[in-house]
Specification:
By secondary structure, the chain is mainly beta. The chain has 3 helices and 9 strands; from the N terminus they run βαββαβββαβββ.
Length: 143
């Protein structure tokens, strides 16, 4: 079994759906980090069978709405002095702005520039979002 040491101060992004760790790693630009980062893929999990984990030896700004949109089952552990200081459980955000783009060619966001792409959560169980302007449906396939 692989062993990754604990971190003194930083962030652990845990319970990432297996295979989504790299997506989050790239979104956070962790490949450009000048501090220690560990990406663990396909780790054993009692709940999920397999999961990804990201350990970051630094406190960085995280957009919880985007992370919740990518995978609503994620937990964020804030680590101070090698212990969990704070635990944040994510969920699907009620509203997302400029995270996804409307695919409807007749939508005002397709025609006009500088209009934000805004989607509202319609069904939490299916991850269905609707465009605020034209009601185009977007299904979050990460669920």
């Amino acid at each position: 079994m692989l062993t990754i040491n604990s971190i003194k101060n930083g962030i652990v992004i845990d319970h990432i759906k297996a295979g989504y760790g790299m997506k989050i790693y790239k979104y956070l630009d962790l490949d450009k980090a000048d501090y220690s980062v560990a990406l663990i893929m396909n780790a054993e999990s009692k709940k999920l069978k397999k999961k990804d984990i990201i350990k970051i030896e630094n406190n960085i700004e995280l957009d919880l709405a985007v992370l919740g949109f990518i995978d609503p089952n994620i937990t964020i552990d804030i680590i101070k002095d090698e212990t969990i200081y704070k635990k944040i459980k994510l969920k699907l955000p009620d509203r997302v702005e400029n995270i996804i783009a409307c695919k409807n060619p007749r939508c005002v966001t397709s025609v006009e520039k500088n209009i934000p792409h805004i989607f509202k959560l319609v069904d939490e169980n299916t991850g269905e979002y609707r465009c605020e302007y034209c009601d185009q449906i977007y299904e979050n396939l990460s669920l």
